[in-house]
Design brief:
The protein is mainly β. The protein is built from one helix and nine strands, in the order E-E-E-E-H-E-E-E-E-E. It has one domain: Lipocalin, CATH 2.40.128.110. Strand 6 and strand 7 form a beta hairpin.
């Protein structure tokens, strides 16, 4: 059930890393959509008065997974995410609504504004599911290797999360 207009119960909601998925996709050669996932290592969403008060999410930069190991290794390398030097990607927001959250994403030590549109949330007891999407220019995120035709610069990001309240 999609109830994005309904108020969320106040409290702190901890993301379940085993049930949370971040999917990132871009175009290759301007034709082929290449999807990949990143693992969330931790995250929380604080709700006050039915609105988002705070969001903290950490992803493992070395967890980039697509259909090709060679691509995975290259994206995790210094050419792109530089997971050895910058092992985490973080998103932090200090407010939002049940339909939109704006904050800062930090990739390779560089912070950039990013807004997620919350497409759905559902709460059943002490469990909640959330879906949110955004589009980012990887050049703005400091991921500048091979811009343009070979690897697209637009990243479509979808987060499907499950959380429990404390």
């Amino acid at each position: 059930m999609d109830n994005t207009s309904a108020a969320l119960p106040d409290g702190t909601w901890n993301l379940d890393p085993s049930a949370t998925t971040v999917t990132v996709s871009t175009k290759m050669m301007s034709l082929i959509t290449v999807p990949a996932t990143l693992a969330i290592s931790s995250g929380s969403i604080s709700i006050t008065d039915g609105q988002i008060a705070n969001v903290e999410v950490t992803a493992d930069a070395g967890s980039y997974t697509s259909a090709q190991k060679k691509r995975n290794d290259h994206i995790s390398s210094a050419d792109f995410l530089d997971a050895a030097q910058h092992p985490t990607i973080t998103f932090s927001a200090s407010g939002g609504t049940t339909s939109q959250v704006s904050g800062q994403v930090t990739v390779k030590g560089k912070s950039t504004p990013l807004t997620f549109n919350v497409s759905s949330h559902n709460v059943e007891g002490d469990r909640a599911t959330f879906s949110a999407t955004t589009t980012a220019d990887r050049m703005d995120l400091g991921i500048t290797k091979m811009p343009g035709f070979i690897i697209g610069t637009q990243l479509d990001i979808t987060v499907a999360a499950e959380a429990t309240t404390q």
